[in-house]
Amino acid sequence: MQFIKPDWPAPGMVRTLVTTRSGGVSQPPYDSLNLGDHVGDDPAAVARNRELLRAFLPAEPKWLKQIHGTAVANADILQDAVEADAAVAFKPGAVCAVLTADCLPVLFCDRQGTRVAAAHAGWRGLAAGVLEASVAAMQCDPADIMVWLGPAIGPQAFEVGEEVREAFVRDLPAAAAAFVPGQPGKWQADIYVIARLRLARAGVSQIYGGGLCTYTDAGRFYSYRRDKATGRMASLIWLQDAGAA
User: Residue 232, SS3?
Assistant: First the structure.
């Protein structure tokens, strides 16, 4: 099983795992570590993949029913999957998790290592404010928050229409810098730049990661835009119990 290591100076009590597509049992086109149970894969294979992942975690992840919205679930008390696109935890052992295959996974922690969060930011959720909602749910000074931007579709592959550009620029004029002209009537969008701008507006200045393109790296990552029928990767974060090894 292969993982991506977030390149950020998170406190020692903060633990993360970011999966790739390698190390599971799913058959093509979901090969092999598909963790999404909503994409048409064999449910038994997904269950086995999640079981394999569970061996690296302190508890079962708090999986969400992601709907490209802005709701933030409290992983400390979450029992069953709810419709939400982010989760926050304040207690050790609660594993926040989001699934992606081109959308941007975003991990959060505070500098003191007392709270963590994970968000799923497709363009709709990003425009609606899922990152800002996650910052607010952490209930601390945004200046104390650290963020890592995980694997997502890169700007060379993320072609969008004028309505997508307008949705961002209308709300944040500086977001125009994230779009360059593509084919007639289309724009190449840099989701990492958009996320950084919106986080900065929310008061977050410690932003890391970005630049891992799911579309162009078929060996490591699933990409919905590239393959349509495909699996999902997980980005997970939790607080380690002080007594854990």
Answer: coil
